[in-house]
Amino acid sequence: MHNSYRRVFAAPGAAAFVLAGFVARLGHVMTILGIVFVVTAGTGSYGLAGTASAGYALAYAAVSPLLSRLVDRHRQARVLGPATLANLAARAGLLAAAWVRAPGWSLVLLAGLAGATMPAVGSLVRARWSHLYGSSPLLHPALSVESVLDETILIVAPLAVAPLATYVAPSAGLVAALVLSATGLTALTVQRSTEPPRPHTPAGRGGALSVPGFAWLLATVGLVGACSTTIELAAVAFSQQHHAAAASGPILAAMAVSSALCGLWYGARDSRHTPQRRLVRTLVLLAATAWGFVAATGIATLFVAALLYGLTLAPIFIDGFAIVHRVVPARHRTEGLTWLTTAVAVGIALGSAVAGRTIDAWGTRTAFASAAGCAALTVAFAARAARRMRTHQVPARSRRPVGG
User: Fold this and answer.
1) How far is CA 364 from CA 230, 232, 307, 352, in A?
2) Cα angle value 250/26/404 (rounded, 5°)
């Protein structure tokens, strides 16, 4: 395992763009919670804070595929430079508006502008890996690194924002997010040697969405997002019902850590099967482990269910991004990678809305059962995507990796 990752990072510039991407993504995720703290402190309204935070997340999900399409046409640096300046201005404006207690609509508007100008950094980094290793077997562990970092960021971001906002100042978490985002984006912008070149062929119409089976893949990962957020919300409610509200944090953390560790192991494995086939098999395991939550009778069994379920998450997204590399032409690849993360975000948003109502109306066990049913549906969707993609594959472009 160690040797695979050592070879991945042997390429000149790889560690630098991964670090830049990690810093920028950490700032992005910290922003969502940081907005809640700063708006609540200034207005006392959790409703407004939630609306502003949702405005940031939804604007990011809506606009980031368009920014990624521009990246595919004009290269990363040409788009990242103006986007970074616009994002910095929007974030600074949001902080200023919160400090002077501007009207609520202005906070929502500025939060939306901050989200709309934030590039999909994870997609930019994965596109660099794809350009660097092409059809090399090292692409698999490289993409696995990014999925593990995604899980790490989800754990670290709340741990960073909450103490800053609580013990330093309500706006401290959002200020830190601004600094991290600006630093990471700037560092990524200036690293020109590892960015993918501008494609020699015209972009064409339709983009990544026109690839056969791609919409089914988006539906698949969207359902995974809905399933996972339903389980998370139901796990919190389940813990409260069993008079162990504090246990929900360790349970969700165990799920994330389990996912990250399995992602490291999965990325170091060699497989002869296509990522489409691997995805279907892993989704079968997802559906099976999801039923563990339905069978849970207490906190201990819920903890075990979370550990087992978490083992499937990182491999699913590793294979999902590998499929994009396999079937989406290079001239649309950054856009395709971004659509995948957008689909997950949409699934999480819809899943959260439905899960909350389900828990209120029918209880946690019904919510867990609905998540398990949703997980089973992902298998059918992924199989459909695999069949549609079977006859469509981007010709491999081999590039000998440094140190490989």
Assistant:
1) 10, 11, 19, 13
2) 100
207-389 in CATH: which number? 1.20.1250.20
Dump pLDDT digits (tens) for 179-228.
Answer: 999 999 999 999 999 999 887 665 556 678 999 999 999 999 999 999 99
Among 86, 246, 119, 136, which Cα is nearest to 188's? 119
Task: Give the residue-averaged pLDDT of 143-165.
Answer: 90
Spatial separation of the C-alpha atoms in residues 314 and 342, rounded to whole Å: 17
Nearest CA-CA partner of 390 in 209, 200, 217: 217
Condensed to tens digits (0 to 9), the pLDDT of residues 86-96 reads 999 999 999 99
Q: Is 389 exposed, middle or buried (0-12, 13-18, 19+ CB in 10 A)?
A: buried
Q: Which tokens is 150 given? A: 């995604």
Q: The pTM is what?
A: 0.87
Q: Which amino acid is at 15?
A: A
Which amino acid makes up residue 102?
Answer: A
Q: Which CATH superfamily is domain 2-190 in?
A: MFS general substrate transporter like domains (1.20.1250.20)
**Where are the domains positioned within the chain?**
2-190, 207-389
Using the predicted structure, report yes or no on whether residue 403 has a pLDDT greater than 70: no
Pick from 377, 372, 368: nearest CA to 296: 368
* Dist. CA 119–CA 84, nearest whole Å: 8
CA atoms within a 13 Å half-sphere pointing along the CA-CB vector of 334: 30
CA 338/CA 28 separation, integer angstroms: 15
Give me the amino acid identity at 62: A
Over residues 94-109, mean pLDDT: 93
